[in-house]
């Protein structure tokens, strides 16, 4: 009996010893809920390392030209056996218009077609082939609100719009009906950046807008402009606004131009492109009331015209970039890297019209060509010292 008691007691003590041994040793202060898979009880758990926020960035480039003002000398020179061909006039500048995501032109004369009668100053009308040449050169947006919009009445406007639609060219500033005018023009790029285009003119050379047909031309009206800018900002990442304003042949903007530009900058417009003076006016950055920066070209001058005064033969191609950055759920739009290419309309005896980059001009084509080129560069950059000038395709 005693031997069995001793054996049973021994077994009892052995079991107790084993139980105590299993519950001794270093204890992890963490609760089981805080353990992760494969964690070790002796491992000190530190805070997780924060990952960098994901950032996406897209970018587009935009080029813009001034007035396509097709005088009779220009379209007479473009006459061929079967219609008109303006392409040779733009051939030397096509590379600078076709290398950007978007190219904008101010088509000053309605392309109503030859059967409506062609331009006889001051009442303009142009062959539809002008639009074909712009499309060929790389332009994909035209602004058509200017003082000559109503020169040949509603029929010319409707015919012009019909042709713009036929060649798939976005137009803004004059419309075919009320519904068309309420459709803010927004170009969605493959790069994922959307750009809205607005266009307005100071007037129509005294020609009244037909009653009930305000859609035929956008007139400068601050209330209208502010409303459409606000709508455009809801629809697009960036807003580019064209203004037909200022005094003809004056090389600096007047106070009314500056005041209107300040107004639209305060509304948050990203870029302002001016035309009507038919000569170049400088570029600059204008600060809006919210601290935003608006890129402004007060006038891009004549790109192609039959005007013969020296400064009226000089225009240019404005180029800039728009980037869109999405970081940590926040979207930022930045207009940057403005550039300019001065151009010159060369012709002899009202023939062989051709738009040429000024940096390529020889003294045979323009006496003292380099001196004139440097003067234009200084003129355009006087309020934007860091403005760069294109002297080749980048």
Describe the structure.
The chain is an alpha/beta fold and 394 residues long. The chain has one domain (55-389): Purple Acid Phosphatase, chain A, domain 2. 25% of the residues lie in helices and 30% in strands. Strands 1, 4, 5, 6, 13, 14, 15, 16 and 17 form a nine-stranded mixed β-sheet that branches. Strands 7-8-9-10-12-11 form a six-stranded mixed β-sheet. It has a two-stranded antiparallel sheet with strand order 2-3. It starts with a helix and ends in a 5-residue tail after the last strand.
- Give the name of the CATH architecture: 4-Layer Sandwich
Named CATH topology = Purple Acid Phosphatase, chain A, domain 2
The fraction of residues assigned to DSSP E strands is 25-35%
Into how many domains do the coordinates divide? 1
> What does the average pLDDT come to?
90
How many strands, which pairing sense, and closed or not: the largest β-sheet?
9 strands, mixed
Task: Output the structural class.
Answer: alpha/beta
Return residue spans where pLDDT drops below 50 for at least 5 consecutive residues.
1-22, 24-40
| CATH level-1 class | Alpha Beta
Oligomeric state of this protein: single chain
* Alpha plus pi helix count: 10
Question: What is the C-alpha radius of gyration, as a whole number of Å?
Answer: 33 Å
Task: Please give the number of β-strands.
Answer: 17
Shape: globular
- What is the distance, rounded to the nearest whole angstrom, between the alpha carbons of the first and last residues? 107 Å
Write down the secondary-structure element order: HEHEEHHEHEHEHEEHEHEEEEEEEHE
CATH homology superfamily name: Metallo-dependent phosphatases
Helix content: 25-40%
């Amino acid at each position: 009996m005693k031997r069995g008691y001793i054996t049973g007691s021994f077994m009892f003590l052995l079991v107790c010893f084993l139980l105590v041994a299993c519950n001794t040793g270093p204890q992890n202060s963490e609760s089981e809920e805080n353990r992760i898979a494969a964690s070790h009880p002796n491992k000190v758990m530190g805070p997780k390392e924060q990952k960098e926020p994901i950032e996406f960035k897209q970018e587009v480039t935009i080029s813009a030209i001034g007035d396509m003002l097709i005088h009779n000398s220009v379209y007479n020179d473009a006459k061929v056996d079967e219609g008109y061909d303006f392409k040779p006039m733009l051939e030397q500048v096509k590379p600078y218009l076709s290398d950007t995501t978007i190219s904008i032109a101010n088509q000053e004369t309605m392309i109503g077609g030859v059967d409506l009668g062609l331009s006889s100053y001051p009442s303009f009308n142009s062959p539809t082939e002008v639009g074909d040449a712009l499309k060929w050169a790389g332009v994909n947006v035209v602004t058509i609100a200017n003082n000559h919009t109503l020169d040949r009445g509603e029929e010319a406007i409707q015919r012009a719009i019909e042709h713009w639609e036929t060649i798939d060219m976005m137009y803004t500033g004059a419309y075919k009906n009320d519904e068309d005018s309420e459709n803010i023009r927004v170009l969605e790029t493959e790069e994922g950046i959307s750009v809205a285009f607005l266009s307005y003119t100071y007037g129509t050379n005294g020609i009244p807008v037909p009653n009930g047909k305000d859609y035929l031309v956008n007139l400068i009206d601050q209330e209208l402009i502010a409303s459409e800018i606000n709508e455009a900002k809801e629809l697009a990442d960036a807003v580019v606004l064209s203004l037909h304003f200022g005094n003809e042949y004056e090389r600096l903007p007047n106070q009314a131009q500056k005041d209107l530009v300040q107004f639209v900058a305060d509304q948050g417009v990203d870029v302002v492109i001016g035309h009507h003076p038919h000569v170049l006016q400088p570029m600059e950055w204008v600060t809006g009331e919210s601290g935003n920066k608006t890129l402004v070209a007060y006038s891009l001058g004549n790109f192609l015209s039959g005007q013969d005064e020296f400064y009226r033969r000089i225009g240019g191609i404005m180029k800039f970039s728009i980037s869109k950055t999405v970081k940590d759920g926040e979207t930022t739009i930045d207009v940057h890297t403005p550039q300019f290419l001065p151009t010159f309309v060369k012709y002899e005896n009202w023939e062989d019209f051709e738009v040429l980059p000024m940096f390529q001009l020889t003294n045979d084509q323009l006496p003292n060509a380099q001196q004139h080129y440097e003067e234009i560069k200084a003129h355009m950059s006087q309020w934007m010292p860091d403005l760069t000038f294109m002297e080749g395709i980048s």
